[in-house]
Amino acid sequence: MDKVRIGLIGLGWMGQLHLQYLSEMEGCIIEAVCDVDEKRAGETAEKYGARAFTDYHLLLEEDAVDAVYIVTPQMYHFEILKAALLTGKHILCEKPLVLTAEELSKVRRLSRGYKGKIMVDFPQRFSVATEEAMCEIKKGSLGKIQFMRGNFRFSMKRHAALHGEWVFDRKRGGGLILESSVHLWDAVRYMTGQEVVSVGAVAHCHPDMDFEDSFFCIANLSGGGIASIDMNGWLPDNSDTDKRFEIVGDAGCIYLDEFRNYLTVKSEKGIENNPGMFTDGMTHKDVMWHSAIAGGVKRLDEYFMRCIRLDETPMIGIEDGARATEITWAVYEALRTGSIVKVNYGTGESA
Ligand SMILES: NC(=O)c1ccc[n+]([C@@H]2O[C@H](COP(=O)([O-])OP(=O)(O)OC[C@H]3O[C@@H](n4cnc5c(N)ncnc54)[C@H](O)[C@@H]3O)[C@@H](O)[C@H]2O)c1
């Protein structure tokens, strides 16, 4: 395949970010864009020399589209993903994958044996700091991982201004725990190499709106380790988002600041800050772009295009998106019951 022809559905904040990066890449072209907002569809199509659609069904029927990006709010992911999975096209779907267990079961079933590539968008796996951390973990610098902690801090006002009020609406967004902590749970699974077995949680509810604005979760992991994740949306509106992790094993530990791209590794070799990051004469400033969400997104888009061209299976499949989602549902149940809840990983056998 010379160039991957992209059709992108959902032209809001995240859709525009993907388009910006995809349009700068050699190996792909923006063939079609779709949004229910006709003006937005038309303007975006003009900007990228693509064709405009307001009905995603028509975009999915296009032979000239090889890969579909699903970047609408999550309440539409299921219907679009279900239709896309009947086309055989390559698919990138935003997180969280879907909103209900029934939808997830159908997606699992439809995606089994699917001939196109499918990937879920967890860009933090592609930040330089995370990639360096994974190199250390794979080398064995930490030994056996016993403990992981992740936290996410942001301004709710800023979050709503960027993405729209739907992010705080349980019906449309699924709830903030689902909307945002799927990233943290994916990081726990990816970096510890262990599954989340059970969870407990406490949360603080927004004084004026119906959602949890802050929470702490604890988890037992399949390899005997433990993890905690916590989120808080009360940062001042002028501050950037923060996402940080600590990963501790019996031989060393890593402190990782994803958005600032800082990594500290403490192991038998001593303490190293940002190991391997300043090779090729790059300065810290040069690599900063890698670490912000946009940097991760750009590298993830490049990776997905590479998987399509080289016929490789993407590292973040439906099952990863499904499991991160199912963990958040167990968290809601833990909050409701005030107890430790076993995560129920569905099999997708039901129709
Ligand atoms: N992976 C990440 O790091 C990351 C970051 C931010 C957002 N997201 C996800 O990306 C998705 C979009 O978020 P956003 O912030 O861009 O939202 P947004 O509200 O800014 O944009 C959504 C766009 O989708 C359009 N739309 C809605 N329904 C549609 C339909 N049926 N067909 C076509 N277009 C439709 C809207 O008109 C809007 O233009 C969400 O699922 C969100 O969770 C992921």
Plain-language structure description:
The chain has 351 residues and is an alpha/beta fold. The chain has two domains: 4-116, 3-Layer(aba) Sandwich (Rossmann fold); 124-292 and 325-333, 2-Layer Sandwich (Dihydrodipicolinate Reductase, domain 2). Helices cover 38% and strands 25% of the residues. The protein contains twelve helices and 15 strands. The strands form two sheets. Strands 14-13-12-11-7-10-9-8-15 form a nine-stranded mixed β-sheet. A six-stranded parallel β-sheet has the order 3-2-1-4-5-6, with helices on both faces. It is globular, with a radius of gyration of 20 Å. The protein starts with a strand and ends in a 9-residue tail after the last strand.
Side by side, the strands of the main sheet go 14-13-12-11-7-10-9-8-15
Secondary-structure element pattern, one letter each: EHEHEHEHEHEHEHHHEEEEEEEHHHE
**With helices defined by DSSP (H or I, 4 residues minimum), what is the helix count?**
12
The counted number of beta strands is: 15
Number of domains: 2
Averaged pLDDT, please? 91
Bound molecules: nicotinamide-adenine-dinucleotide
- Biggest pleated sheet: 9 strands, mixed
Poorly predicted runs are none
CATH class of the largest domain: Alpha Beta
Which structural class should the secondary elements be placed in?
alpha/beta
Fold-level CATH name of the largest domain: Dihydrodipicolinate Reductase, domain 2
Distance from first to last alpha carbon: 35 Å
- Any idea what the radius of gyration is? 20 Å
CATH architecture of the largest domain: 2-Layer Sandwich
Helix content: 25-40%
Question: Per the principal axes of the C-alpha atoms, what is the gross shape?
Answer: globular
CATH superfamily descriptor of the largest domain: Dihydrodipicolinate Reductase, domain 2
